[in-house]
């Protein structure tokens, strides 16, 4: 079950009784089926066990989809996107690792997601046979969607109906505004990147050429050349 407490600013999830962190390290290229299949594995080490397990991206993807299915009322951040080509290039592997670390930090710090049985299974199971059993058990979980509400322990304090409705309306307005604003920011940032790769790039090249021309002019005046300026 998951507990909701009443804080000074309203209801909030009860903090995890056993907070922990988790490291993701040592991305390593692995093969199976005599080299037919190649993948990258990560060493995942939770702080409360200090026992590492090794996970592929597909395991993270499985966990992500379980979280979405289980916790429809909680925002679960996206995993780093898949890539069809260049999956084994060093830059891509390092970039994906950094993003997986950020994703994992959010999971372990969340008072509800961090206590999910499927998440614990992901972090602790090192045996292939037990992994498959736990995976099937998580996929057969019936307390998902609306049924998740049956697992909640709610505060006993009386709640004013009008106050609750006002809070819900305020959150709906916030969520819509935040969604629209993030989409706008993403669009503007993408446009800026496109311009820097296109027209802006040419303008900066022109500016660089102008400075280079001034430098060449100074070099034509030996008494006041760049060596003199450097001194």
UniProtKB/TrEMBL annotation:
GO terms for molecular function: phosphatidylinositol binding. One of its GO terms (biological process) is endocytosis. InterPro entries: AH/BAR_dom_sf (IPR027267), PX_dom (IPR001683), PX_dom_sf (IPR036871), Sorting_nexin_WASP-bd-dom (IPR019497). It is found in: Cytoplasmic vesicle membrane. One of its GO terms (cellular component) is cytoplasmic vesicle membrane. Keywords: Cytoplasmic vesicle, Membrane, Protein transport, SH3 domain, Transport. The keyword Membrane applies. It comes from the Eukaryota. Its main location: membrane. Residues 20-130 form the PX domain. Coiled coil: none annotated. The keyword Cell inner membrane does not apply. Belongs to the sorting nexin family. This is Sorting nexin 3.
């Amino acid at each position: 079950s998951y507990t909701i407490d009443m804080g000074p600013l309203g209801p909030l999830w009860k903090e995890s009784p056993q907070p922990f962190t988790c490291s993701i390290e040592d991305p390593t290229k692995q093969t199976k089926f005599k080299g037919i299949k190649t993948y990258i594995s990560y060493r995942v080490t939770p702080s409360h066990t200090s026992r590492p397990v090794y996970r592929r991206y597909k395991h993270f993807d499985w966990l992500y989809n379980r979280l979405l299915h289980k916790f429809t009322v909680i925002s679960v951040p996206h995993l780093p996107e898949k890539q069809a080509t260049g999956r084994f290039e060093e830059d891509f592997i390092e970039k994906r690792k950094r993003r997986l670390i950020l994703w994992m930090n959010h999971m372990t710090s969340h008072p509800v997601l961090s206590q999910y049985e499927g998440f614990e299974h992901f972090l602790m199971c090192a045996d292939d046979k037990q992994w498959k059993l736990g995976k099937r058990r998580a996929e057969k979980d019936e307390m998902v969607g609306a049924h998740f509400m049956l697992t909640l322990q709610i505060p006993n304090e009386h709640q004013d109906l009008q106050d609750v409705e006002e809070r819900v309306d305020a959150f709906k307005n916030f969520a819509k505004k935040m969604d629209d604003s993030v989409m706008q920011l993403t669009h503007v940032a993408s446009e800026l990147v496109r311009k820097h790769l296109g027209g802006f790039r040419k303008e900066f090249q022109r500016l660089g050429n102008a400075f280079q021309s001034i430098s060449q002019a100074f070099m034509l005046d030996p008494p006041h050349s760049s060596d003199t300026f450097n001194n």
